Zn(2)-C6 fungal-type domain-containing protein (Melanomma pulvis-pyrius CBS 109.77), 745 residues
Amino acid sequence: MSGYYPPNQHIPPQYYNINPNAAQNPNIPHVPTMVAPDGSIAHGMPESPVYHGMPVPFVQYAEPQMQQPYLNQYEDVPGAMGSAPAGTTRMRRRTAPGDNVKHRRTRSGCFTCRQRRVKCDEGHPICERCRKASRECTYPEPQTRTKGRSGSKSGKSGTDGSSPEDQDEEDSKERLGPILDDEGEEIDNDYNLLSKGQGLREPSDTPSLTLDRSPSPLTETSSATIPVLRPPLSRKTSNQATRPTASSSKATSSLPPDVRFYLEYFQDHMSHHHYALKRDSGNFLKTDFLDMAIKHEPLRYAVVGYAAYYHTLSKPDGRISSFLQYYNESVSRLRASITKHKKQSLATFLTILQLASIEEVLGDWVNLMGHQKAAYEILTRLYTPQTITQTELLRKVLLWYIRFDLFVGFQSGGESVLGREWYVVMHDYYAQKAREEPNDLTFKYEERFAYSRLVAKDSSDLFARKAKGLLSDEAFMAQLPILDEQVKNLDKNIDSVLLDPSGYVTNFPGKPDPEGIVNPYEPNVIWDGPQWTSNYLLLDMWGIIFVYNIQVSMAMRKPFDPSMAQKAYRVAQVFEAVCAYPKGPPGAIIEAQASLAIATLFLPKDPKTVQWCRRTFAKIESAGYIYSNFLRNRMLEAWGIEHSDWWLPNDEACPPIIRSIKNFVTERTTAPKDQASEDLREMKGLFSTLTISDSPLSDTTSHTPIEGVLALGAVPANLDETIIYTGGSPDFDWSYDPKLSGAGQ
C-alpha cells in the first residue's frame, strides 16, 4: 500500500500517528501477525474462499514520516455518526503553544463560518474564507444567498439531455481543486440521501473521461469530512440522522454531472450484495453511507469508482479508464486528507473499506490485506467493543470490517487481527434484540450471522495458534471437539421462522441446462420476499463448514467428510437459482460466488462437472468478480487441463472489457519481493498443501495428507517483514496504457 498511506518503518500500528508523546494503542502489542510461513496450514474463507494475491509495487511518494500514536492529542467532537464513552461532552482539541486556534464561537458573520467555528470577515456578497474555498456564503440578514465560484454553474440540471461527454469541455473549467482553508476541515452534520427529485438523468452512456486529461473532476463545493476521532455517541437513530435538509440537497446538485451520474447508478443499480453484507433492512448503503460519501471527498470518489466499475461492465464498449480515474482520485484525496489534517474519522475508515472492496473485485488480495490492516488501526482507535454497537450505522460498519478481517485471517493462514471480544459483543447485541423483539426477522438473521462469524473466528484462531506452536497437542485436541460440534450444527440451529416453507419459490419458470449438474428451477430450492436472506444464510454457513473440513482434513490427515460432496451440490443448486431468479436484487452473483467457489473443491472431477465449473467461473468473472491467474491455473491443473489465461478456450464467453481489465491487472503485476509475498500470491494457505484426487461421480473427493502442517514456527516477528505492505497501492500514478488493455480501441 505504499504510495498512498504515509510510509513508516513500523507500519501499520504507527501508520497514522504523528504525536511522539501520545500513549500507545493498547491493542497493538496483542495483534497477531498476518502471514503464515510457507507450508502453513491451509485456511479457506467462508466469505470469499478462493482468492489470490498479486503484489503490485507502484511509484513511491515522498511524504513526511508519521510516527507514534497521535490520537490522544485530540478529544471528542460531537457528531451524529459515532460513539464515545458515556458522559463525554463537547471537548476541544488540546493545543500546543504557538498553534493557531479556531475561534470557539462566532456570533456574527455568514452561516458557513459560524458552522465551521472560524472568524468571518463579513465581506459582501461573499466573505473571504468562502471565496477562497468556493463555499456557499449565506448571511442571516437579509436571508439571501450568493453562490461562490464553484456553485455558479453547478445548478445546471443533469436532466437537460446532455451527457457527461457533452459537458466535458465546459466541466473542465470547473474541475479545478478547491482552495482549502489552512485551519482544517469543516464539520457538517447535514446528511441527506441523494434524492431522485433532483432530476438526475437515467443511466445511459459511460461518461467519456480519459486518463490523458485531468484524472477526475475536482470540483468540490461542500467539503465536509468529519474530524471525529472517538466520536461521541449519538442519541439519534440513523433515520433521524438522515432527514432531508436543504444544504445537503444543494451539495448534491452542485456535484459534477459525471459524479452525480454514478451516484445515481449506485443508488438504482447496486445493492448490499455488492458488499457481501447479507442483509440491509435499514438501507444503510443508500442512506447513511451514501450521505457520508456525498459529504466526504475521498469516500465519494471511492464509491463513484465502484459504481463506475460495474457500470463499465454493463456496457459493450466499456473502457477501464472510466472507473480507474475515480479510484485514483479517491486515493489521491485520501492521502492528502491524512497528510494535511493528520486525523481520521469514520468517513476515513469507510473510505478504506470501500477501496478494499474495489481491490477485492479486481483480484488484488495483497493490497486488500494492507487496507484491512490500516482499517484495523483506525477502528480500534475510534471505537471500543462497547461503543461500536450503540448505533445501527456503526454495527453495519463493524460487520463490513469483520468480513475483511476473517477473509485476511483465513487466506493468510493466520488469526484474524480483531479481538474475539468484538465478535462476542456483536452476537450478544443481536441475541438480546432477538429475544426482546421475537417477531423481527432482521434481528433473527443478524443473530445467526453474528454467531456464524464468531464460530468462524474461533475456527480460524484455533488452527492458526496450533500452526504457530502456541497450543499443545493436548489443548488442541481438547478444544477441537467443541468447535466441531459448533460447526456441524451451524445449519441446523436456525430459527424455523427463517426457513418457513411458505417463503419458498414454487413457480420458477425455466428449463435446466442439459450441460448443467443441478436443476435450479426445482420448487422449494430458494426463498423469496422477506426470506430472501435465508439463501445467503445457508450459503454462508455451508462455506464455513467447507473451510473447517479442509482445516481438519489437513490437521488430522484424513479425507474429507463424505457428506461434503452432497452439500457441495446443494450449494451449486442454490447458487444457480439465486443468479437466475428474475426477482433477485442486483449483485446476487457477487455475494453468492464465495461459497460456490470453495464448494467446487468438494465436487467430483468428471468431464461434465469440470466443464460446468469452468463455465460458472467464467460467468462470475464476467459479472465483475475477477480471480487470479494462479488460482485459475491451479484449478485447471487439478482438472487435467493446460494452463490458460481464461476459463474457457479461445476466450469463449469473455467480454472485451473483462479481457481489458485482466490484461491491465497482469501488466501491473511484478515478481513478489520476498517469500511471504510469493506465498500469498500463490495462495499457499489453500493450494500448496491441498490435492484432490480424481474420482467418479459417485465418489467423494479425497485429500493427500500434509507433512508437518502444524509443526511450523511462528510468522515473522516484525510487521514490516510481512507481505501486507510489500506491494504498492494502485494510486493515481497507475501506469495505464490504453494499448495494453485495449481500452483505447
Remarks:
- Confidence is low (pLDDT under 50) at residues 1-106, 141-248, 671-677, 683-745.
- DSSP finds 23 helices and two strands in the chain.
